[in-house]
Amino acid sequence: MNLADGYTKKVAIVGAGISGSLTAWHLQQLGCEIHIYEPDEHKKSCSFTAAGMLAPMAELESANDHIYQLGMHSIALWPQIIAALGGNIFHRDNGTLVVCHRQDEGVFNQLLSTLKNKLGGNFSQQCEVVHSQSLERELKPLGTSLLLQNEAQVDAHQALNALHQSLKSNSHWHARKADKLSAYKVNDETFDWVFDCRGLAAKHDINGLHGVRGEVITVHAPQVNIERMVRVMHPRYRIYIVPRENQKYMIGATEIQSDDTGPMSVRSTLELLSAAFSVHSGFAEARILGLDTNVRPATLDHQPVIDHQAGLTRINGLYRHGYLLAPAVVAKALQELGFNTQQHLMQAEYENCI
Ligand SMILES: Cc1cc2nc3c(=O)[nH]c(=O)nc-3n(C[C@H](O)[C@H](O)[C@H](O)COP(=O)(O)OP(=O)(O)OC[C@H]3O[C@@H](n4cnc5c(N)ncnc54)[C@H](O)[C@@H]3O)c2cc1C
User: Fold this and answer.
1) Of the residues 218, 269, 296, 315, which should be mutated to test ligand 1's pocket, given the most ligand atoms within 8 Å of the CB?
2) Nearest CA to ligand 1 atom 5
3) How far is the CA of 228 from the CAs of 7, 142, 242, 250, in angstroms?
4) For the chain, which has fewer Cβ within 10 Å, the N-terminal or C-terminal residue?
5) Which residues are bridge partners to 131 per DSSP?
6) Which residues pair with 257 in a beta bridge?
7) Domain boundaries 96-149+210-298, corresponding CATH code
8) Whose alpha carbon is nearest atom 4 of ligand 1?
9) Paired sense of beta strands 189-190 and 229-233, if any
10) pLDDT in tens, 279-293
């Protein structure tokens, strides 16, 4: 299959979450005529809920080496993508601090063993056992902590808004649903290729695709000054605190086997906020800016899907790793169709330098 040969291709992208938006943007930069179908005007898609953590090491607790390798590749790609989009996207790469309360040291030690086992010789280059307060002075005194040095984060809203802005200016943006989607066709219009990036809405076309509910809280906490992402290990849940600009923090996320998009439960709210308060008392006076719930598109083995057939490619199954995986997964899918996404990223980098 080589879609990149010859004349300008007319391509349809169905769904403008992070996978569809990145696919459309790369193909737009590579000279294709892009038609995007996206009905979500109110930014309710799963990609707008994400905390934007790029955490391949922390994910190794349950994920495999494939996710880790794709994640490391994406971590390298994000700065190039951000630069090519004009640079105004919050991105920070000072790592994640994994902490636990003394009574929970069992789960912490288990993570330590898992990472040593899965990372092998790379463990000592990427992870450092530290005292949490030596890096984040304001945290309450906790037990031993682990710095996952190479982890990063990107502001999901800013990244998606920048992609949408570029696509709305330079492509055909159809603010409506694709009612019919098949090889070479969307809503009876014919294309050279169709990309199905509908997330969970594609569950009837992808074997085993199912929803995993996640909840996240955004707060403004003027009394909290934390620079790094903090992951709190607990026997029943893992909770992260992601520092954003202007002392905003995202606290997440639950993981519930359900495709219920209804409002956040009291239990989840209590667990997330208590975990944050347990590591920094300044969260007590924080103001809640938003409670957000969404459903992650997951496959049975939690691996991403790239499925090509003549005239149709499906990209899906990004589960809880949409921002961590999408740059690498989309680059791989497009490479399999004959495109070199690295070429235009390097061109943009060169143009930014001169
Ligand atoms: C609480 C929470 C926190 C998360 N935190 C992180 C994180 O820190 N890091 C990370 O990497 N990932 C995170 N994720 C996961 C991430 O959000 C998902 O993996 C990602 O959003 C999936 O992207 P997608 O583009 O495949 O699907 P989606 O974002 O669901 O996008 C699919 C799009 O398709 C559109 N669509 C559906 N049907 C149609 C149709 N018929 N026609 C046209 N368009 C259609 C929808 O409107 C939607 O915009 C989190 C998820 C949740 C819920």
Assistant:
1) 296
2) 50
3) 47, 16, 7, 12
4) C
5) 144
6) none
7) 3.30.9.10
8) 50
9) unpaired
10) 999 999 999 999 999
pLDDT digits (tens, 9 = 90+) for 292-314: 999 999 999 999 999 999 999 99
177 C-beta closer than 6 A to ligand 1: yes
Residue extents of the structural domains in the chain: 7-90+153-209+300-354, 96-149+210-298
| Mean pLDDT to the nearest integer, 155-163 | 97
Q: What predicted TM-score, i.e. pTM, was given to this entire model?
A: 0.96
Q: Angle 318-329-242 (CA atoms, 0-180°, nearest 5)? A: 55
Does ligand 1 lie within 6 Å of residue 14's CB atom?
A: yes
pLDDT at 235: 82
E-state strands within the chain: 10-14, 33-37, 53-54, 91-92, 96-100, 127-131, 144-148, 152-154, 172-174, 181-182, 185-186, 189-190, 193-196, 210-220, 229-233, 238-243, 248-252, 287-298, 305-309, 312-316
pLDDT of residue 131: 85
Q: Which fold is adopted by the domain 7-90+153-209+300-354? A: FAD/NAD(P)-binding domain (3.50.50)
